[in-house]
Write a structure and sequence with these properties.
With 170 residues, the chain is mostly helical. The protein is built from six helices and no strands.
Length: 170
């Protein structure tokens, strides 16, 4: 079973990422991109080295995907500034998807258990959705620090909301 299928792992991860982004906004994005670069690059490097050292080149094709992922991982580590610009759009889109998902989840939950959710349950996903729209519409008007802190607050809010749902449904 995948660890991220466990709701508690997702809740703890989103709260931790939210706190990291709020308290260390200047270092958060480069650090996250560096970690992703390492997590993508090391397994790819291992696969390529295993292929080269195995000596069985006739029966196995060269791991092209591993080479591409290794280059991607190295570029994340060496040129994080380009990815930071792209990441802002990805983060805004992710917040929009998360807000819509939570609203749809609440509506489905309302039909399934035939019980009304409080207005606070709808307010938090709407706030997350609006923050995502704000980031996509105006990504570079605010500084990177404000955008990252805003995304961190929304991610923290998402984790707290999921924790509330988890406790309520247990």
């Amino acid at each position: 079973m995948n660890a991220f299928q466990n709701p508690l792992v997702r809740i703890i991860a989103s709260i931790a990422v939210g706190l990291l982004l709020i308290f260390y906004p200047n270092a958060a994005l480069p650090t996250i991109l560096f970690i992703i670069g390492i997590l993508v690059g090391i397994p790819s490097l291992y696969t390529i080295l295993f292929y080269l050292l195995s000596g069985d080149h006739k029966h196995l094709p060269f791991p092209v995907m591993s080479a591409i992922l290794l280059l991607f991982g190295c570029s994340l580590i060496l040129v994080p500034s380009w990815y930071i610009g792209v990441t802002i759009y990805v983060l805004g889109g992710a917040l929009i998807l998360i807000g819509v998902y939570q609203l749809l989840y609440l509506l489905t939950l309302k039909k399934t258990i035939k019980r009304k959710a409080g207005w606070l349950s709808y307010l938090l996903p709407v706030i997350v959705l609006l923050i995502g729209i704000e980031i996509l519409v105006n990504p570079f008007s605010a500084t990177e620090r404000i955008i990252v802190a805003t995304f961190g607050a929304a991610t923290l809010l998402y984790g707290i909301t999921d924790l509330m749902y988890y406790i309520r449904l247990r």
